[in-house]
């Protein structure tokens, strides 16, 4: 019973952080799309990624955003990268800092990966400037 309460608390804490980082619209869309197939996975993400890792005191959300962007470039995960570039603004990350991560990634992830990330970041910046922050 105690463990179940802990799981619920972790989920609620994760949901709060997930909303703060990704935005209410993104989280609401994700919750609206819950299905028997993905519900357990989404709860897992909320509890562990957002409720355990993103809440740890050792790194700021700002730093976590920069690290996450770099790792997603290395893994070539375009959809997640786009989402986390958007989210980085919610954590106080600047365009200049994103540019520096993309430059740094060119050395360690390769020029093609960094080039693709630059194009993707440019599209996110254009959406942001136009007032559109869609999750496509």
From TrEMBL:
GO molecular function: 4-carboxymuconolactone decarboxylase activity
Gene3D superfamilies, sorted: AhpD-like (1.20.1290.10)
Enzyme class: lyase
Alphabetic keyword roster: Lyase
UniProt keyword Membrane present: no
InterPro entries linked: 4CMD/NDH-1_regulator, AhpD-like, CMD-like, Decarb_PcaC
Record-linked SUPFAM superfamilies: AhpD-like
Domain Carboxymuconolactone decarboxylase-like: 40-122
A Pfam family: CMD
EC code(s) of this entry: 4.1.1.44
PANTHER family assigned: 4-CARBOXYMUCONOLACTONE DECARBOXYLASE FAMILY PROTEIN (PTHR33570), CARBOXYMUCONOLACTONE DECARBOXYLASE-LIKE DOMAIN-CONTAINING PROTEIN (PTHR33570:SF2)
Official protein name in the record: 4-carboxymuconolactone decarboxylase
Species this chain originates from: Serratia ureilytica
Lineage of the species this protein comes from: Bacteria, Pseudomonadati, Pseudomonadota, Gammaproteobacteria, Enterobacterales
Gene expressing this chain: pcaC
